[in-house]
Structure formats: C-alpha cells, structure tokens
Amino acid sequence: MTDFLNSLLLIDIAGAATLAWLAIGMLGLFAPRRMIASTLFPAGALVALLLAASCLWGLNSTPQIAVLPLGLPDLPFHLRLDVLSTFFLFLLGAAATGISLYSAGYFRAMGEQSGSKLNLLCLQYHVFLASMAWVLLADDAYFFMVAWETMALSSYFLVTTDHEIPEIRRAGFLYLLIAHVGAIGILLSFGVMQGGHGDYTFATMRAGHLDPLWANAAFLLALFGFGAKAGLLPMHAWLPEAHPAAPSPVSALMSGIMLKTAIYGILRVTFDLLDDRLWWWGALMLVLGLLTALFGVLFAAVQSDIKRLLAYSSIENIGIIVSGIGLSVLLNAYGENAVAALALTATLYHTLNHAFFKGLLFMGTGSVLHATTERNMAKLGGLIHHMPWVAMTALVGTLAIAGLPPFNGFVSEWLMLQAYLLAPTLPEPYLNMMLPLGAAALALAAALAAYAMVKFYGIVFLGRPRRQNQEQTQIHDAGIWERLGLVWMAAGCVLLGLFPVNVILQLDHVTQLLVGNDLGNSAARTGWLWLTPVAPERASYSPLLLFMMMLGGIALTFLIVRKFYHGRLRMGAAWDCGYPLQTPRMQDSADGFGQPIKQIFEQFFGLSREVPSPFDPHPHYQSEVTDPLWKIFYRPIARSAEFISRSVGMLQQGRISMYLLYSFVTLIALLALVI
Amino acid sequence: MKLSTLLFQFFQNGLVLLLAPLLLGWVNQCRAWLQNRSGAGLLQPYRMLFKLFHKDAVLADNASVLFRSTPYILFSCMWLAASLVPMVATDLPLSAAVDVIALVGILALARVFIALAAMDIGTAFGSLGARREMLVSFLAEPALLMVFFTAASISASTSLVTIVETIAHRGFFIYPSLAFAGIAFLMVLLAENARIPVDNPSTHLELTMIHEAMILEYSARHLALIEWASSLKLLVYMSIGFALFLPFGITEAGNWAALPLSLAALFAKLAVAGFGLALLETLSAKQRVFRVPEYLGTAFLLAVLAILIHYLLGA
Amino acid sequence: MAVIEHLPIAQQLLNLFAALLLLIAFAMLSQRRILSLINLFALQGFILTLSIADSAWLTHQNHLYYSAALTLLIKVIILPWLLHRLIRQLNIEWDVETLINIPTTMLIGIVLVVFAFNLALPISELSGTILRHTLGIATASVLLSFMMMITRRKAVPQVIGFLAMENGLFFAATSATYGMPMVVELGIALDVLVGMFIFGIFFFQIRETFDSLEIRHMEKLKED
Asked: Is C211 left (phi over 0), alpha (psi -120 to 50) or beta?
C-alpha cells in the first residue's frame, strides 16, 4: 500500500481529481435536486482540497509527463506537470475548496425550485473546474485548445444560468464572442510556435528556436489571446458584463481562477515555450498592465452595482499582475535575473492573493444578494448588524484588497515596489525613467483601490439601510456552508499575509524554473519571521511582529484605559451635529461617494448626464458612466465587421444562374491556372 | 538584541506618548501668538485628554463593533508608527520589522479604519468626512510613497534606519531631488494632518470639515484616544521629515551618553518646525475642497519629479 | 541609482539651483494670478543670476560675472518693474485666470520632463562643462514655458511664458557652453527690453480693439 502511495505521481493525483470532478458533475445530472447542494458540492470541495494539499506537498518535484490514449491519431493528449502548473493547480484547488463549500450553501435555495437548473449547473460547474485543471496540465496545442474551449463553453453556460433575463443573455454572448476571438489568437500563436515542423507538442515548441520576426508574432498573438481572456485593455469589455450576470460563486470562480489560467498561459508562452525574451515585450506588458490597472480602478470607483465594482477591480488586479510580468521580462531580457525573480515572485504572490480576496469578496456579495435581492448599492446599507459573519469576512477581504498590512495584498504590493526600487540601471535611458513612473502609477492604483473598497464596504455594510421599506428582520446571515467557505478564504488572506517567507520559499521553485534565480536564500536569511528580499539593511518587513505589536498596543490601551478610568457607556441617538431630522437618505449613495473621482477624471469616462432645469416640477437627475472604449474601439470594429459581412453577403443573389456562373468562373480560372 | 536597545525602545514608546500633546499645544500656542491672542497654554491638550477620559461615553444606538474598536486600532497604529520612526535613536529593535513602505501601509490602515467608522453611524457628516478623507488620501499616499522612494533611491534601502544613517553620515550634501521631495512632503504633511490649507483643525463648519466630520460621533475616552492619535500622527510626520531631510543629531540606540544631546536636538527641531507650521497656517487660507486634488496632484507630481531628477543628476 | 560622487559645495549648489529653476517652471504652469506669475518670473531670474555667479566662481570664467550682473539688472529688476507697471496701467493687477485642467497640464509637463531628460543625455556627453548634467533641466524648463504659452488664454501670461522660455534658453546656453559671447548676450538683452516696450504698446491696442485681453478674440481677424 505504501509502495502504491509512494509511486503515486502528482500528475496522477491531478488527473484523478479532474476525473472525480467530472464524475461529480455527471452524478449531479441525475441526482435528486434536494441533495445536490448538500452532498455533491462539498464532495467537489473535498477533491479540490486534496488537489491543493498534494500540489503543495509536491511543489518541488521534477516535471512529470503522461500521454493519454485520447485525442487525434497522431497527436494524443500530452499532459505535463511542472512547477508552474503545480503552483497554478494549487491556486485552483485552494480557491475552489472555499468556493465549492460556499456554493453548497448558496445553491440550496435553487434546489428547492422546480426545473433542472441545478442539475445542469452542477454538471457545468464541475466540468468548468476540470477543464481549468486540464488547461494547466496540457502539454500540446490540441489538448490545450480542447481544454480552453471546454472552459469557455462551460463558463458561458454558467454565466447564462438565469437566461430568462435579456441582459444576461447579452452579457453571455459578448463573453463567448471575446473568448473565441482570444482563442483564435492563441491558436494562431501555437501555429507560429510550431515553426513548420508540424508537431504541436509543447516539447517541440520548447526546443525550437524562432527568428525574431516569428517570435514577436507568437508573443503578440499570445498576449492578445490570453489578454482577451484575462481582461486586459482593450479586450476587457466582457468582464464587467459577464461577472455581474453570473451567479456569485461562478463570478468568484471566474475572477479568482479563470483569469489566472490566462496569466498561466502568458507565463507559459513567454518564459517557457519561447526561448528568448525581448526587452520591448516586457515594456509593452508593463505599460499595458499599468494602463489596465488605472482604467479598472477608476471605473471601479464610480460604480453603483456591487458586482460591477468587483469586476472592474479584477481588471485592475490583472493589470497589476501583467505589469509585474512585464517588469520581470524586461529585467530578464537584460540579464538581471535576481531582480527579475523578485518581480516574478511579487507577481505570482499577487496572483495567489487575488484568487483569495476576490473570491472572498464575490462570495460576500453573493450572500448580500441572497439576503436582500439587491445589487444596487443605493438600496443597501447597514448590513453589518444583520449579517455579522459576512460583514467580518468581507472586512478581511476589503482590507486585503486595499493593500493594507498585515494582510496578503500588502505583501505582494511591497514586493512589487521593492522590485521597482531595486531594479538596476538599464541601458536604455527611456526605460530607466519608465521604472519610477511605473512605481508611481502602481502606488496611485493601489491608493485608488483603497478608495473604491472603502466605498464598497462602507456603503454596503455600514451606515443605515437606505431603502426605507426594507424588511430588516428578514435579512438573514449566511448559512453554515457559506460561512465555511468565507472563513476558509479569509483565513487564506490572513495566513498569506502573516507568513510571507514560507510562501516565498515555495514560490522560489517556480521562479527558479522561469528566470533561473530565486529569492530563497536572501528572503529567509534572517529567519522565517523577517522578509528580507535582498538584505536586512536594504529592506525588511515582518508582518507577524507587526500584527502582534498592533494587537499588543490595542490590548494594552484597552486595559489601561479601563483600569485608570472607566468603561461607562450610554447609548443614544446619533449626534449628527444636532440636526434633528436625519433620514437614511442623507448618507452618501454609491454615486455620491464616487463623485469626486467622476469630477476629477471626467475626460476618461464616457459620462452622460441628465440635469433637471430649475423650472421642473418633478426634478430628475440621472448620470451614467459608460466605458469610452465601446465608442472608440468596439463599435468601429463591430461596424466594419458588419460592413464586410454585408459586402460578402452581396454574393448571395438568389438566382440560380448566378450560382452556376460562380461555378463556371471558378472552373475557367482553375483551368487557366493549371495550364 | 541588547537590553539597552530594548530599554531605548520602551523609552521612545513612552516619550512619544508624552510628547505628542505637547507638540500640539506648542503649535496651537504659536498660532495664538501669531493671531495676537493669548492662547490656552502649552498644557491644554493634556487637560483636554484628562477631561475626555473622565466622561461617560455616548454611542449612537446603531454603532457596530467596527465603530467601537476603531479608536483603539487607530491609537495603536499611530503609537506603533511613532515608536519606530528614528527620533532620538536609530537601530531600534522595532524598526527592522517595518520599513518605509510598511509605515505608509500602517498609516493607510489607520485611515481606512477611521473612514469606515465614520460611515458606520450613517449620518450625512460621516459619509462626507469619509469621502473627503479618501479624496485627500488617494493622492497623498502615492505622493508620500514617492517621497520615500526618492530617499530610498539615494540610500539604496527602504529601511528608515539605513536612510537616516546614510543621509546623516554623508555630511552636508545638497540633494536637489530631496529639495523637490521635501516640498512634496511638506504639502502631504499639511494635507494628512488636516492643517490649513487643506482642512481647518479647529473648524466646526460643515463646508470645511474633513477630519472633524469623521469623528463627530465619538465622545469621551474614544474621542480622547482619537485626538491623541492625531497628535501622534503629527509627531510621526514631523519626525519622518526630520529623519529624511534633517537627520543630524540622531544617535544609535543603546548610546545613553548621547541621549540628552539627541533629545535636545529633537526638541529644538520640533520647536522650530511647530512654529513654522503655525506660521504657514496663519499665512495661508483654506482652499476649496475641490482645489485640494489639484494641490495634492501637484505634490504627487513634484515627488515623481524628484525621482526623475535623481535619475538624471544622480543626486 | 548611481553612487553619488562627493562634489564640491559649489557644484552641489548648481544642481540645487537647476532643480529650483525647474520647480519654478512647474509652479508657473499652475498659477492663476498674474501677480504671482510676475513674482515667480522675478524669482526665476534671481535663481538664474545666482547660478551663473556660482558657475563663474567655480570655473573662473570671469565674463560670466558680467552675465550675472546683466541678468540681475534686466530680469530681476527692470523687466518685473515694467510688467508690474503694465498690469497696473491695463488694470488687470488682480486678474485671475481659469486654467484648462491643471492635472492634465501637469501630466503633460511630466512627460515633457522625461522627454527632455532623455534627449539631453547624449548631448551632455559631448559637452565639456561641469554643468552638463543640468542641460536636461534647462531643456525641460524651456519646453514647460513653451507649454505655458500654449495653454494660456490671456495676453500677459503668454508673454511671461515667452520670457521664462528665454530664461531657460539662457540657462541651457550657460550649462552647455559657459554662456554666449558677450556681444550676443548684450544684443539679446537689448532685444528683450525693446520687445517688452513693444508688447506694452500692443496690449493697449488689443485692449482698445477687442475690449479684452483674451487671445481668442484675435481669431476674429481671420479672413473668412
């Protein structure tokens, strides 16, 4: 038995996990509806937990390959598990555990409805999880594309779960469209990378060497394709539509894990399949990433729909991740591998962090939606009193995503800023000045993210309820399964924030593979307590000590104040400077809280306003923020596509003689060519 | 960690708690003199804290756990920040746990908590204060980070201890980038500590409140802790300014013999800086709230310019 | 992040003055009041004088002392006095101008600074003066003053932008080649003085014709 366990490779465990998910999905199709939520989803969570645990345990093993007897006759499915895949599988498993636990509680209500929605949902959900794992395991272009397409299709069906609503159908269509446009880019990139050998396995691509022209083409196509899936500017338009349309656990999965598979794709192509990196690739990703980050966070700050806000925040974080990859590629192209490893560590850390805190926040909004059936922040408020569990875990998520110590968001931000600071002088002068500007943009994005998140938490959970006729007593807190999921993710945020050195020691295996250098020696030089990426005098940070000191300070203050003075307390009405008539409507609405950002950055939003005239008996104010890229980028493309298809459509004349003429002309042309 | 460095740390912990209200009192007294008033005396903040601690706390009936715990969290963050900035001695044991970026993070944590607590009761003033505070912070925090970045680029380290030691022991050297960074830091100091021209610390008019609006619902010991934390914040910012731009006179931890001299240096610097702050406040007028992003945007751009100049001139 | 060489105090002061010039150029971009613009211009002239005197002391080029004296006379004393008199006579002393979007202007300013810094790097290598690193700053202040001229709507601030640009050019000349031949300097100084007188006359004319000093009224002179 122990022999069997010892010889059990990680790749077998991963494969078994995906098959287990498929099996659970199939079972869900036939199982009675009432049982699905309470048995099948927790089973999926258990599989995810096992996957995550084994990946964590096996993070430093050598690459393992497997060839399945499925697939094309001369291109069977190749699977490969190296450190990069293991890391992302760990991310998948850990985040999916929390989300599946949460779904067990979330979908219980759906099980009581009629119709086969929950059966189909269970199947689609677990196929989605399995296909994401396959994407991470794939070692040839065909299997990769099959897995990618399965991922896109299953997530499309998940997004359009409530397909009775037209907006959701529209959002799903947009999502599928952009996913497929991206898939074409990825396919073309693989086509370029196989370099004319005809062998589409990644092993050949890894060994091959492309001329600069083709390497550039492959990189740009891959960036376009994976960027469309990740939500990079300007292919981001589907994100703010699809995430709110999907059920909350699905949004958490998509934001937390699916976007990361695109990041995995970029990392795989740039660092692994292409043999040499050019500096301008890094510069392009850096600039594009920072622009995406600023765009995402600016729009997040002016939203009034809770899920759209989080979707735009995901765009921001993906931008930060891609800019980190860009910085790493840039430094790697100039041979500065030590700092490139630092930048890459920061990026991977942020990827892991984002899965946790974004998943947590989406799950929190799911509970809010469940309890209040309201997505509009103008109608929410005061939920901390009725939903303490959700509010507390959402507070952890908010503080983490705002990049505040001692949580995990701060660690990755700290590492990224250190990478910018420690970057040596680059030969190109313009690039040299781009680094401090990049650091400034990153700091600005982080500060704006704090703004958006304070808005999110403050308006949804704090204050008084904004809707007067709301039945406050009916608002219930999350159930036991949902609490488990939320606490799991919150614990992840806290642990990732307090023990960064241990995480970095694990991430070192990945950076060692990708850039040939790691932080391990320097990071852990002064012990597991202190994070010192280079040397203690250069930079050091100890989140655990910080946390202990803060707790100590709080406890000391509390005790001393109680001992020397008193703890007498009286409850009364709110003071509000003595104003007698206070209504909940006098608090800031979501629109109001974001108004300064709207005013300062007015040119960057597509803003439409309806202002009442002074003579209106029933004054009406409305303002709408739309994405300016729709008008600038998407609509011209759509119109030209329509134009081209209409011109081609002129070929359809409807008359038989015309069609015969087409065949005749083709025949004559072919004869002329041959002779 | 030697015992004497640990004792130094405790000494600094206690010193900052006692010194912060005195600093505030000095600034207010200078303002009074400049405005031809006789002022309330240097010890007035102590009297105010004493009075507030003895009162009964009154809380709004829909105050949540967040509201009740924020004063303690805020006070603890500011006390922690004040304990690690090198004021009289470098190389304190706590300084190794937190570098300048983490220091900005701690200040941001305190700010987010007070903004959330302001929104908790659900009054118009609370959300007004929170919104304005986040408006100030979304530009002030990157500006502060970029100022730190400039200093870190010069001394090749983000540890405040190393920055102080590098700049102090280089001798008198004019760093043009630090000149820009200094002006940016001054602007950020005025904004973050709710001083004119960004916010009037003694106002009670809604049009002009940022900080006051956020703490409107607090009373008694909670308000005392928050006021103490604000004076600690002013002390922290001034000490950071001294550490980055005027680090002379700071000794190493454990050197008890040099302590009186460095204490005297600190008091002298604080006295001059406090008077300078009062002078600045008296000479300027408070800006409209919507001019504040411009003001802070200027500070941010000056800080970025400081780094660019550092890259160009190497100084 | 280069290691800082230990420079003599005079050279450190030069770097500081250069940085202050750039700071003043930025400050002029965001000023709304005409009075503060003129005062900033005078301050810029003063810092320019100090830096020329400092480089004269450092490099023992005595003709630079005469340059410094000339700059002090014209740019710190005569021109600001002329401008003050002009705005008093035009009755625009307390004028406040609405600026187009200060944040965007500042952002473009930063881009120009980066561009100027990088532009100057290869040129600095060729020059032999001790001031060569400050060439980038001089170029940047010229570009910023030029931008100030573009973004202003009233006549007098545009002219002040032009004068500030001339300051920047002068600093660039000093840092690249230790100043221009004395004849050229005297000629330029005379031109600037005469130009100011002519501008003064023009402002009165403009005000009489259009009843306002806003530049956009001159668009009515288009042939349509």
From this structure: left
Which pLDDT tens digit goes with each residue over A564-578? Answer: 888 788 888 888 777
Residues 6+ apart with CB under 8 A from A61: A10, A83, A86
Inter-chain touch A554–B76, beta carbons under 8 Å: yes
Could you give the number of structural domains in chain C?
Answer: 1
pLDDT mean over A260-278: 90
Q: Which residues of B touch A294 (CB under 8 A)?
A: none
Q: Is residue C120 part of a domain?
A: yes
Reported pTM: 0.91
For residues B146 and B233, is the Cβ–Cβ distance under 8 A?
Answer: no
C118 touches chain A (CB under 8 A): yes
Which amino acid would we find at residue A592? G
Type of residue numbered A409: G
Q: Does C1 contact A603 at a Cβ distance shorter than 8 Å?
A: no
Task: Kindly report, residue by residue over B44-78, the tens digit of the pLDDT.
Answer: 999 999 999 999 899 988 889 999 999 999 999 99
Phi, psi of C133 (to 5 degrees): -70, -20
Q: Which residues pair with A76 in a beta bridge?
A: A71
Residues in chain A: 675
**Structural domain of C208:** 18-218
Q: Provide the angle, in degrees to the nearest 10, between the axes of the packed helices B220-245 and A543-564.
A: 140
| Strands B57-60 vs A569-572: parallel, antiparallel or unpaired | parallel
CA distances from A50 to A44, A55, C154 (A): 10, 8, 72
CB spacing of B170 vs C4 below 8 angstroms = yes
State the pLDDT at residue C2. Answer: 39
Which residue's entry shows tokens 């601030």?
A: C157
Interface with A, mutate which of C3, C101, C114, C119 (most A CBs under 10 A): C114
User: How many CB atoms neighbour CB A468 within 10 A?
Assistant: 10
In the block, tokens 């989605």 appear at: A128
DSSP C123-149: HHHH--STTGGGHHHHHHHHHHHHHHH
Strands (E), A210-328: none
Answer yes or no: is C2 within a domain. Answer: no
Neighbours of chain C (3+ CB pairs under 8 A): A, B
For residues B274-303, one letter each, b for 16 or more C-beta atoms within 10 angstroms of the residue's C-beta and e for the rest, the string is: bbebbeebeeeebeebeebbbbbbbbbbbb
pLDDT band at C123 (very low <50, low <70, confident <90, very high): confident
Contacts of A437 in chain C (CB under 8 A): 110, 114
Could you say which of A425, A430, A603 has the minimum Cβ distance to residue C118?
A430
Tokens of residue C211, six digits: 């009843």
Task: Say if C102 is an interface residue toward chain B (CB within 8 Å).
Answer: yes
Could you write out the DSSP letters of every residue in A235-248? S-TTHHHHHHHS-H
The DSSP element (H or E) to which A607 belongs, if any, is: strand A606-610
Best of B158, B173, B294, B312 to substitute, by most chain C Cβ atoms within 10 angstroms, is B312
Q: Are B181 and B165 in contact (CB under 8 A)?
A: no
Chain B residues lying within 8 Å of C15, measured CB to CB: 174, 176, 313, 315
Nearest chain A residue to B161, by CA: A537
Residue C4 domain-assigned?
no
- Nearest neighbour of B64 by CB, restricted to A384, A577, A593: A384
**Structure tokens belonging to residue A585:** 């409507």
Hunting for tokens 């020696």 — which residue is that?
A521
Contacts of A596 in chain C (CB under 8 A): none
Residue B178 belongs to what domain range?
Answer: 3-313
The residue type found at C24 is I
CB A99 within 8 A of CB A485: yes
Question: Does residue C179 fall inside a structural domain?
Answer: yes
Contact yes or no for A97/A48 (Cβ under 8 A): yes
